[in-house]
Amino acid sequence: MLGDGQTKYDLDGDNAAHELAACSENFRRRDVATKARLSYVHGQGLQVQLHLKEWDKWETCFQTKIDLPDNPYLGFSAVTGALSDNHDIVSVATYSATILPQFRATGPGGKQQPLAAPVVANKGSTWSRDGAPGRKPTSSSSRGATGWFLFFLKAIGLLAFVAFAVAAYVSCLKICLSVRRSEQR
């Protein structure tokens, strides 16, 4: 659904009137994690791929030619119409790539044409094995205050455990000594 900020989701008709493209797939009880990847290239269109059957194998769910606004909003909904279901979004990652001017193809009227040219990622991003943008590896120095906080939290937890163990040992020793003394009398 390409919303305009005013159009409401049609619950009775499962939003069929406002649907741009769709596919249906049984995603339950799979051996791999179920994932979806949405890719948009200005002037080329929108594509949704699903990761369902094998690791690192993506199958195209749908591909449609559409131009999105320059600053679109991305939203997720678990609305299922009349049926009831449960969906969890574990994580969302967004990336932006820029095609260098020397690789941009333009056609009549200055419109950008589909092309197969090298794409350069924005500064700071990395690329994964399959050529899609990936997360930049984090080092311990880039975690900053969070890393130190977790370190001190773990250290305090370890000290509390040791203190509890020592207190339990001393308490047990005192009980054992008092039992022996009472037996000797």
UniProtKB/TrEMBL annotation:
Keywords: Membrane, Signal, Transmembrane, Transmembrane helix. The chain crosses the membrane at residues 148-177. Residues 124-143 are annotated as: Disordered. It holds the Pfam family Lectin_leg-like. The keyword Glycoprotein does not apply. It is a single-pass type I membrane protein. One of its GO terms (molecular function) is D-mannose binding. CDD domains: lectin_leg-like. One of its GO terms (cellular component) is COPII-coated ER to Golgi transport vesicle. Residues 1-97 form the L-type lectin-like domain. This is L-type lectin-like domain-containing protein. One of its GO terms (biological process) is endoplasmic reticulum to Golgi vesicle-mediated transport. Its main location: membrane. Signal peptide: none annotated. It is found in: Membrane.
